[in-house]
Amino acid sequence: MMKKQAVIVGGGPAGLAAALRLKEKGIQDILILEREKVLGGILRQCIHDGFGLTRFGESLSGPEYAQRFIDKVLDAGIACVTDCTVLDITPEKLVTAASREHGLLQIQADAVLLTMGCRERTRGALATPGTRPAGVYTAGVAQSYINLQNIMVGHEVVILGSGDIGLIMARRMTLEGAHVQGVYEVQPYPSGLPRNIEQCLNDYGIPLHLSHTVVDIRGRERLTSVVVAQCDEHYRPIPGTEQEIPCDTLILSVGLIPENELSLAAGVELDARTRGAFVDEHCQTGVPGIFAAGNVLHVHDLVDFVSLEAEALANSAAEYLLTGSLPECRLEVKAGNSVGHVIPQRISGTRDFTLSLRVRQPLSNVSIVVRQGEKEVLRKRMHKALPAEMIQLPIRAEKLSSSADMEVYVE
Q1: For residue 300, what are the CA distances in angstroms to 294, 328, 354, 392?
Q2: Cα–Cα distance measured from residue 20 to residue 73, given in angstroms and rounded to the nearest whole number
């Protein structure tokens, strides 16, 4: 049995940023547990640029962005155990993990920071009809094969879903000599960032088909074709619109799911809309001393926001460790008209915090309005609001009331 002030579960961008900030705040006894053989998380396979514009003011590749934090963590002497799987976390903050090098570990922590990131939604989750041939990959798996293992996954490619990883893989496959027949999206609008639509599809002449989905997968040993169909406003295929497309590879980019099995084991309550934890303005879950940030809390579109959110978490976790408590957050934050979700879901009304939200559908010339009772706390006018882009609003304490719930809506 070991004892640690802070145990960080996950050594990706959120975990690394949180560890560094904890060290800066005077917390010395920190342990990072990482499932992969090396630190860095998903950034290791994201060899395209565009990372770091907000956090560092320059464009970096994923490995470059991760390495900046890894170097600082190692220089700071923060303990890390890689190739280590966390098996269980209890509400009493007892962490059980298994490591090839160290065997079975039990660590009693004063605070646990959950930074486990996301996993991809698979074909099984979509229940797509058809056979089960080789050649069907999630976008992240295809990216890992090509970028980390130098394995080409196919040559005639169809991409289902317009998530950012799928758009980036459309470009990557084209650069490697494959022919991408098109990107098919079930929704009437793309789910990836506008810059990725422009740079990954339009610049390479790759067509984007909205309100379309794959209704059949064909092939025995290897994928030979898929059948796509147009969808109605309820996302149901329209009979008579089917089209068979010969291909040897189907790449799925159909959403990310926060990795929260350990959170549930720890007694953390999850929000059905974000699939992450309910948290307060300190990024603390409903279990005192257990915090969450990054993609395990809600899916981010930029890694810079992941790092900044993790640093805010670490500020609060350090205060918790040094003082033994945090201000109570009794006020609810509710998502109103056209708002998909809000983070945090609880506030104290006495401190500054950053409100993160996404709209449900693309909107033009709207205002994001934050109210407490009859009082308008903040109004932000936006020319365009997209579900793909997370909106962050700094909320000042002097504008808040400590006795009324908050509602966020669009008008």
Answers
A1: 7, 27, 14, 11
A2: 6
What integer pLDDT is reported at residue 1 of this predicted model?
Answer: 85
Cis amide leading into 344 (omega within 30)? yes
| Nearest by Cα to 163 from 130, 133, 136, 140 | 140
Q: Which residue positions in the chain have pLDDT lower than 50?
A: none
Strand-pairing partners, residue 143, are: none
Give rounded-to-5 percent helix, strand, coil for the chain: 25, 35, 40
**SS3 category, 296:** helix
Give the CATH number of domain 329-411; options: 3.30.450, 3.90.380, 2.60.40, 2.60.120.
2.60.40
- Looking at residue 30, what is its pLDDT? 97
Looking at residue 70, what is its pLDDT?
Answer: 96
Query: What's residue 367's pLDDT?
Result: 93
CB atoms within 10 A of CB 5: 17
How confident is the model at residue 242, as a pLDDT?
Answer: 96
Q: Is 52 helix (H, G, I), strand (E, B) or coil?
A: coil
HSE (CB half, 13 Å, CA atoms) of 329? Answer: 23
Q: CA geometry: angle at 352 spanning 346 and 353, to 5°?
A: 50
Contact status, residue 8 vs residue 31, Cβ threshold 8 Å: yes
Is 1-121+255-326 a domain of CATH 3.40.640.10? no
| DSSP secondary structure, 352-403, as one string | -EEEEEEESS-EEEEEEEEEETTEEEEEEEEEEE-TTS-EEEEE-GGG--SS
Multiple choice CATH, 122-254, 3.20.20.70, 3.30.360.10, 3.50.50.60, 3.10.20.90: 3.50.50.60
Terminus-to-terminus CA distance in the chain, angstroms?
Answer: 55
Consecutive H or E run containing 17: helix 13-24
What pLDDT does 85 receive? 96
**pLDDT at res. 373:** 86
For residue 27, the Cα-to-chain-centroid distance in whole angstroms is 27
Residue among 205, 195, 346, 366 at smallest CA distance from 271: 346
Instruction: Give the pTM.
Output: 0.93
**Could you give the count of Cα atoms lying within 13 Å of 396 in the half-sphere of its Cβ?**
6
Delimiting residues of CATH 3.50.50.60 domain(s) in the chain: 1-121+255-326, 122-254
Phi-psi region of 141 (alpha: psi -120 to 50; beta: other; left: phi over 0): alpha
pLDDT of residue 286: 93
- The token pair that represents 63 in the structure block: 């490995």
d(CA 105, CA 98): 6
